[in-house]
Design goal:
Layout: E1 2-5, H1 20-28, E2 32-35, H2 47-51, E3 56-57, E4 67-72, H3 76-79, E5 87-91, H4 98-106, E6 110-113, H5 128-147, E7 155-157, E8 160-162, E9 166-170, H6 174-185, E10 189-193, H7 198-205, E11 209-210, H8 216-219, H9 233-248, E12 252-255, H10 270-274, E13 281-284, E14 301-304, E15 307-310, H11 320-336, E16 339-340, E17 345-346, H12 353-358, E18 361-362, E19 365-366
Parallel strand pairs: 1-2, 1-4, 2-3, 4-5, 5-6, 9-10, 9-12, 10-11, 12-13, 13-15
Antiparallel strand pairs: 7-8, 14-15, 16-17, 18-19
Helix pairs in contact: 1-11, 5-6, 5-11
Bound molecules: nicotinamide-adenine-dinucleotide.
Keywords: NAD, NADP, Nucleotide-binding, Oxidoreductase, Translocase
Family: Belongs to the AlaDH/PNT family.
Organism: Rhodopseudomonas rhenobacensis
Length: 375
């Protein structure tokens, strides 16, 4: 069996789907690994690092591979190089991209979306949303600190005292929790909000203060899967009224609020941005899904009257080596479940819940119930 590691087409994608560490693990299972030249270079992994652990590096790496691993969903031009019947495993961004999924199905490959992995104990080690969101949360604070013209910690010096920066984190999932922890480590005074009641205790356990409208709707805002529900217009208005006053006094706002399969909720209006002090910084981690902050622009830092709104996309990719390392391990753990160790061959159990949750296409058709082409 052969696995190929694709080089990403998107010049803005620095991550790679394998590392020397995971190549070693695949080799130990008796799996051959071929890498497209330069696939790891933007993650600090030149080709020699891969050949040193037994991978082959070749421009033809993908041609006869049984499994192709990559970071982003393959484009039509890439699919032409894949063997029919091959598996391709990546972060597929399937929501709203049904046409692209149909193109993959037409190429006769079986595509798996890593971000649809169920959040069950068994699949924790394959949870790419968590591994990448954790790094994005960390990096969001670093970006904020870089854009902020002041220090984060309180500093008492002979020349006078500098107050600690006030950081407000909106959305306390994996990214938000890491943002809180990172901002606290830098010495900021941190507050946070979320619509899921379970987050209150988590925020407090990190030494931050929790702020939310704790009404009946809030008490039921978490789905059985642990995600947020889309809140009513009434709740959002109450939430905005509460946070508006708080936002005026903040130096840094980091937003991470998402609802699976829906556009990101708008949490910070242009008016709220304008109410902040010049020099303040907002980092919108939800920008790829429309953004939480009005005025945030994907891929850019916008200056609104001296207030900076950071809209970088692929924030985990800004810590590329760490992001690749964790993503590659997520992939290895999933592929291990698709492999029969005795016969050293591919053995996909199509009724396994991990496969059912992530498989998008098979035998020329889109098979995932959530992404059926519209009639
Ligand atoms: P996410 O990226 O989908 O959303 C980020 C946060 O935004 C969530 O906490 C959500 O509640 C919040 N949010 C949504 N609408 C909001 C609004 N209007 N105002 C404020 N906040 C809003 O979330 P995530 O990081 O993927 O985490 C979701 C949950 O899954 C968490 O409980 C997390 O601990 C859990 N989780 C479980 C596992 C596992 O069991 N294997 C793994 C990872 C995460």
């Amino acid at each position: 069996m052969k696995i190929a590691v694709a080089k990403e087409l998107d010049p803005a994608e620095p991550r790679v789907a394998a590392t020397p560490d995971t190549v070693k693990k695949f080799k130990a299972l008796g799996i051959d690994i071929a890498i497209e030249p330069g696939a790891g270079i933007k993650s600090g992994l030149p080709d020699q690092e891969f050949t040193a652990v037994g991978a082959t590096v070749s421009a033809d790496a993908l041609k006869d591979a049984d499994i192709i691993i990559k970071v982003k969903r393959p484009e039509a031009s890439e699919l032409a190089n894949y063997k029919r019947g091959a598996l391709v495993i990546a972060i597929m961004d399937p929501y709203g991209n049904e046409a692209a999924l149909k193109t993959i199905a037409d190429a006769g490959v079986s595509a798996f979306a890593m971000e649809l992995m169920p959040r069950i104990t068994r699949a924790q080690v394959m949870d790419v949303l968590s591994s990448q969101a954790n790094l994005a949360g960390y990096r969001a604070v670093i970006e904020a600190a870089e854009a902020f013209g002041r220090a984060f910690p309180m500093m008492m010096t002979a020349a006078g005292t500098i107050p600690a920066a006030k950081v407000f984190v909106m959305g306390v999932g994996v990214a938000g929790l890491q943002a809180i922890a990172t901002a606290r480590r830098l010495g900021a005074v941190v507050t946070a909000t979320d619509v899921r009641p379970a987050t209150k205790e988590q925020v407090e356990s990190l030494g931050a203060k929790f702020l939310a409208v704790e009404d009946e709707e809030f008490k039921n805002a978490q789905t059985a899967g642990g995600y947020a529900k889309e809140m009513s217009k009434e709740y959002q208005a109450k939430q905005a009224a509460l946070t508006a006053e708080h936002i005026k006094k903040q130096d840094i706002i980091i937003t991470t609020a998402l609802i699976p399969g829906r556009p990101a909720p708008r949490l910070v209006t242009a008016e709220m941005v304008a109410s902040m002090k010049p020099g303040s910084v907002l980092v919108d981690l939800a920008i790829e899904r429309g953004g939480n902050v009005e005025g945030a622009v994907a891929g850019q830092v916008t200056d609104v009257g001296g207030i900076k709104i950071v809209g970088y996309t692929n924030v985990a990719g800004r810590v590329a080596a760490s992001a690749s390392s964790l993503y590659a391990r997520n992939l290895f753990s999933f592929i291990e479940t698709l492999f029969d160790k005795a016969s050293k061959s591919l053995a996909v159990k199509w009724d396994d819940e991990l496969v059912k949750a992530t498989a998008l296409t098979k035998d020329g058709a889109v098979i995932h119930p959530n992404f059926q082409p519209k009639a």
